[in-house]
């Protein structure tokens, strides 16, 4: 059991805070196994029970791990010339996912900082890993797609109609902004994050299920 960082985009951070995101999928990156051919895993390699130990070494996040969430952020403007690792812990942070800037009497936010550069002390969300499954990306179910935090836009598209349900179409070239099935919505989200052709590539992924605790990892419950 290990404490690890994990990065999320603004919309996914908001889904975590809203309690609508309890899963994430990350591409498994093999590390030079002799059984690899042209850089990809064959079905026989991945599914062979004898390779469970090898798979565990390639799946970075494991059951029992705690994950502290990194997200886009701003430190106080006075630290604009300071590396994130050199900003003293406990200083004010503005989280980009929150949308509005700080109140007028609050600190003045400095330059935009990428999620990958957020120090551990600035994290506000902790995830407790409950399950990890190795599967193809397109094996995702409707229930899993919803658990990924896709946005339900039914009220915007068909207000008052309880017989219909619509989900956001993310940036994949769609013209109408919504789809009528969760997997289609998630496929467009995956494409937005990972680029054209990434959904069609159908890579092996680690499907991680977790519980969300809205606090710094040092205040979170033990693994």
Walk me through what this model shows:
The protein is an alpha+beta fold and 223 residues long. The chain has two domains: 3-68 and 125-216, Archaeosine Trna-guanine Transglycosylase, Chain: A, domain 4 (Roll); 73-113, no CATH class. 20% of the residues lie in helices and 23% in strands. The strands form three sheets. The protein has a five-stranded mixed β-sheet with strand order 1-3-7-10-2. A three-stranded antiparallel β-sheet has the order 5-4-6, with no helix packed on it. The longest helix is centred in the C-terminal third of the chain and has 13 residues, at 182-194.
Topology:
Layout (H helix, E strand, L loop, with lengths): L2 E5 L2 H9 L4 E5 L15 H5 L4 H7 L7 E5 L2 E4 L16 E3 L13 E5 L12 E11 L5 H6 L6 H4 L9 E2 L9 E2 L2 H13 L9 E10 L10
Parallel strand pairs: 1-3
Antiparallel strand pairs: 2-10, 3-7, 4-5, 4-6, 7-10, 8-9
